[in-house]
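Preliminary data (for renewal application), nicotinamide-adenine-dinucleotide complex.
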Amino acid sequence: MKILISGAAGFIGYHLAKQLCQIKKFNVLGIDSINGYYSKKLKKKRVSLLNKNKNFFFKNINLNNKKSSKLQINKFKPDIIYHLAGQPGVLYSFKNPQSYYKNNVLATKNLVKIAKELNIKKFVFASSSSVYGDQKKFPIKENFKLNPKNPYAITKLKSEKIIKKKFIKTKIEFIIFRFFTVYGPFGRPDMFIHKFLNSIKKKNKIYLHNNGLNYRDFTYVNDVSKILKICLTKKLNGKIINISRCNPVRTDKLVEYILKLLKVKKANVVKIPPVKGEMLKTHGSNKKLNLFFGNIKFTEIKTGLKNTIRNFKSTGF
Ligand SMILES: NC(=O)c1ccc[n+]([C@@H]2O[C@H](COP(=O)([O-])OP(=O)(O)OC[C@H]3O[C@@H](n4cnc5c(N)ncnc54)[C@H](O)[C@@H]3O)[C@@H](O)[C@H]2O)c1
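Predicted structure:
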């Protein structure tokens, strides 16, 4: 089976590729533009680790470039596409909304078109909990009214709509997963956990938005990549499914856990008011996920943090 992963130099794409390469009969092509939104060194490190697998291939492709993307992907002829490439980050989306339109909406449009022309079997898309915005009821179910409150969320929702519209009348199976705050080894340096680890290392200030009272449904990356792998064997056409641990943690508690694991007594933590466009609480229902995938045993936050910190100490990422 030939599998294409877009965003393979990215955090989740890397873990998924690693997971899929364990199956020797799979051929995995990872594509990524290796953009400079965060450390290119980290992205290249992930690719170099993946390149150790005989069944992994990498191509530097920007999905905004329709012609060359088509040419390269047509050569590989994938059966399955995992579309994880994109421009993430909530706060940066107010500063540079154009990048979100290009790398989320246009990139998705281009890849969907290529997938249709190649008549692939399955298209799996990484959407985000941010499409829900602030909700009053928890845990958040997939059928709740959507309320995107920043350009990132708007472009993820737009991408979902493109996928639905373009695949609905075809034989291509499509599945949309909405991820909730994914963390783990080689995690994104723009997200809280790695930002915090880097700030401690460099003795810099770290800002706790909403005075540390935001809740996030932290979900360990290996759980996510395992679910994405199992999805190969499931018939889930047209389904939208949350991937969440359904057990949110308050940011100030998370800070305590991390300091304890690091055996550090104090950090330069500065509490600040809520930040525009950020959700106050993410807490996703995983009832639908468990219904289709059997009861998933999610990794405990402290175990996930321990693994993340161990990797940070040994690799610097
Ligand atoms: N990490 C999370 O908590 C989280 C939560 C919800 C949704 N998601 C979604 O999951 C996906 C993966 O997230 P991640 O955390 O691994 O992010 P990431 O930024 O680490 O990975 C995305 C990768 O896509 C690449 N990319 C961007 N635009 C591209 C383009 N035009 N062509 C080719 N490659 C391009 C980037 O270089 C990057 O390596 C993203 O679509 C993100 O929106 C992530």
